[in-house]
Structure formats: C-alpha cells, structure tokens
Design goal:
Length: 355
C-alpha cells in the first residue's frame, strides 16, 4: 500500500490537493495544445485531434431496453435513470479510433477507442435536460493516467524537447507517477490487434447515474460480430475492415451497452473496502467486475452504408461533460482535467480550419 501511494494512488481526501487542481488543469490544457501542435509538425500535416488522431466515423442506432423485464423491481428502478428511464430508439454517430496523438499505422501497438453521440432530439427527452449525450470508451478497463497531478507530470515529459531530461527535472514522486503511467500505457497498448467491431470497450472513468449512484460504462461486442482477416499490408487496416464490414456484411455489428455500479460495500482494493472518493478519484484503479457486475441496459447497432465522409468525420467531436444530461455528469479528477484540454484542442482545430 505504501508503495502504491508513492506512485500516486491516493487513499483519502487528505492526500489530495484541491487547491492545486485549478492550476494543474490550466497547465494540462496548455501542454495538450503543445502536444497537438508538435504531433502535426512532426508529421508535416494540419492539426488533428489532440488524441485519437486517426479514426473512422459511422452511423448507428442506440436502443434503450425496457429495464422492467426480467429484473427485480429495485434493480430496474436503480438502472432507469436519465436517458435510460424509458425504452427508446435514438440515432447515433460512432467513431472508432486509435488513441495516439500521431497518425500511425493501425497495426502499431495502441489503445483503441469507441466514442459515440446519441441524438436525444428524436425521442421523448423532455426530462433529460440535453439534446445529445456523448460516451467515450477504450479497450482497457482503466486509464493509465491516475489523476490530474499524474496527467500534468506525464504531459510535461511528453512535450519536453528532451523527454529524458524532462523526466529527470521532475520531483521524485512525479517521476514515479510518470513511470507508472508509462508502464500501464505500454501494457494496455500491447493487446492483441483485432477488428474494432470485435473489441470490448470501457468508459475507464466514472459518471453519475441519477442523484445517488455512480457508474462506469462498457460496450460489449456480440460474439457473432463479423470480420474478415485484417490486411496488415494496409496502414489503415482496422479502418478499412470496418468500412468493408458496413458495406458488405449481411449482419451488422452490435454492442450491448452496460453499466457497473460503484458499490463501496462490495468493492475492495488490496483486500479492503474504500470510500467513494477512492474509487472516483483514482482512474487507474480497476473496478473488479467480479465484485461489481455490469448490467446490460441498451444496444448500439451499426448501420449499413453509413460511413461519414472525411470532412464530416473531421467535424465530429465528443464531449462527455458538455453533452450529458444532469443525471449523467462525469465525476473524478481525470474528468475534471480532460474537459478544458479537449475544448482547447477542438477550438484550435476549428481556428486552423477557418479560411
């Protein structure tokens, strides 16, 4: 436990520094813009997204289940919050992508992402409080970056002209945070490369689910989602396969959408239960599915011949903070830190795209 604390995992509020968070977040946004521009300069291209630079967008359908069927009334009531309060079918836009800020071959080891936006204007959403709801997930159960201090320390190293010198210049505990982040990121990136439509994705960070609960999300692929062998000779092999899939396959891929409740009485870390803050503030700590199971509440289905044009794909963005209902606001250090950085990155792209 002491060793874990040295590497940045915080056990109690006393170990966190809310007073420093505002300045940390401002510095993260500044460094994120630098990382974005550095990536563009290295590859002699215009600005792309600060992360998840290379991807493909398609249209989909998001169907919310009748949660009263085959569930205990108490569980059904707990699940039926926000946009999930009643059954419905909504249009959605989905982006599959690679996590890196550089545009690499799809076969370079990397974390893969699934982000999607649900259009709430075409359903009964008078109580939802938003016109759309966005979700962002990766094919890993946690983020390698634990919180905003680890985020800032890591991005300082990534944007340094000499990363080794940048790491050496950090305080000792920040060095440990960066090393832990890099080790976790490398482990996650070394997963077996499979088609986007056959991967499972997790939100990795928590969100509110009604006034009382906190949850994480997962998109679970159907076991019969079709795919052909990947063409490793093609740099865009994952994207090409997804494009082929929605053009040619008779059955389109489906993902069950599930929520995992934060249950402090059942979840343990190193054999002990922890308070709510521990589970919401430490993004690199897994919520063990054996202790807190996922509950399937909706389904995301890709639509045939629905790939967006490159211009439309470039204009698409996802913002889980701004585009959320009051019942689904993001919580935790990483969620607070990433929103200003993502907004700054999006504005920078928009300015560069303006004639």
């Amino acid at each position: 436990m002491v060793l874990t604390r040295w590497f940045g995992v915080t056990v109690s509020d006393a170990e966190r520094c809310p007073a420093a968070e505002k300045s940390n977040i401002e510095a993260i946004a500044e460094k994120s813009l630098l990382m974005q521009s550095n990536a563009a300069a290295r590859q002699h291209r215009s600005l792309c997204r600060g992360t998840h630079a290379s991807g493909i967008c398609v249209r989909a359908q998001f169907e919310i289940s009748d949660l009263s069927i085959d569930r205990a009334p108490e569980l059904a009531a707990r699940l039926a919050k926000g946009i999930f309060a009643k059954p419905g079918v909504y249009p959605a836009v989905v982006r599959f992508a690679n996590a890196d800020s550089n545009i690499n071959s799809d076969f370079k080891p990397d974390v893969r992402s699934l982000s999607f936006s649900v259009d709430l204007t075409q359903g009964d959403t008078e109580d939802a409080g938003a016109s759309r709801q966005d979700f962002s997930m990766q094919n890993a159960t946690t983020l390698p970056i634990n919180d905003s201090p680890a985020f800032l320390a890591t991005i300082k190293v990534l944007t340094a002209s000499n990363p080794i010198a940048g790491l050496w210049s950090l305080p000792f505990q920040d060095k440990l945070k960066v090393l832990r982040t890099m080790a976790l990121a490398e482990k996650q990136a070394r997963q077996k490369i499979r088609p986007y439509q056959q991967l499972r994705y997790w939100s990795t960070v928590p969100f509110r689910h009604g006034p009382d609960d906190v949850v994480k999300f997962s998109a679970i692929p159907s076991i019969d989602n079709p795919a052909r062998p990947l063409q490793r000779s093609k740099p865009r092999g994952l994207q090409d396969e997804l494009a082929r899939h929605i053009r040619e396959d008779g059955q389109l891929s489906r993902f069950d959408f599930a929520v995992q409740f934060l249950d402090v009485s059942a979840m343990t870390y190193w054999g002990r239960t922890r308070d709510v803050g521990f589970w919401t503030e430490n993004a690199s700590i897994e919520w063990n599915e054996a202790e807190a199971p996922f509950h399937r509440i909706a389904r995301l289905t890709l639509l045939r011949n629905s790939q967006l044009s490159p211009e439309a794909s470039e204009a698409i963005y996802f913002d889980v903070t701004a585009n959320s209902t009051p019942d689904s606001r993001p919580v935790g250090s990483i969620n607070r830190a990433r929103c200003p950085a993502e907004v700054a990155s999006r504005k920078a792209r928009a300015i560069r795209a303006t004639p």
